[in-house]
Amino acid sequence: MKFLRESTGLIKEMGPLDAFALNFSFIGPAAGISYPLFVASFLPGANWILALLIGAVLSLPLLFNYYFLSLKLPRSSSDYIFVSRTLGGMMGVVLAMSLIVSFAMGFPVLAELEVIMVLSPAMQLLGYSLHDPNLIFIGNELTDNVNYLTLATTLIIVVAFLISSNSKWFFKTFRYLTFLQIIGTIVMVLGMVALKSAFTPYYQPSPPKFSFTESLLLSSVFVLSMYAFVNA
After folding, report:
1. How does the record say this protein sits in the membrane (predicted)?
2. Domain spans in the chain, listed from the N-terminal domain onward
3. Prediction pTM value
């Protein structure tokens, strides 16, 4: 639905489903699960429940910050609106530019981490589980062959240009990607449960010694994941 407001001239082009898709995509629940799991593999002494509780407590100040700001500015909500309306327009511009730069620099890093921390290990693990050397080969090639990175980068640029040229394409694409992300997250969780059941009879390591330091380090990863949920 699109309409023109006489008071501001703003045009509404996004419906509730589109808003949900954008926020859900920003949250990235699959990454919120995979990143802590990947880091936890290097912190065997960490207590996951304790790390999650510490991370939740450390996220409370940010949560309350957004809550009180939304009470003060209930009709509009975004980091730019919050900062520009409370600290002035110049600070809002500084924030907006810093977000643009950080996203432009951060997204390529996150995309590469997805390959290193998620896609490649997943293909290798599936290959070992299913005794399929082709999957193992693909998992190795994803990190060793630069052609995959070049192809993926080119594809992302082309697709981003195409969907950005038309708002309807943009919102439709996000709807489909959100649907795939929901399905992928469910499949990932079910896959982890199934793989754990498959490996349990053959691999039962002794429980590692508890380490509060490692639990604290793992909690920082949970804080980063929770930030996306709170900010969205």
Report:
1. Multi-pass membrane protein
2. 15-24+145-200
3. 0.62
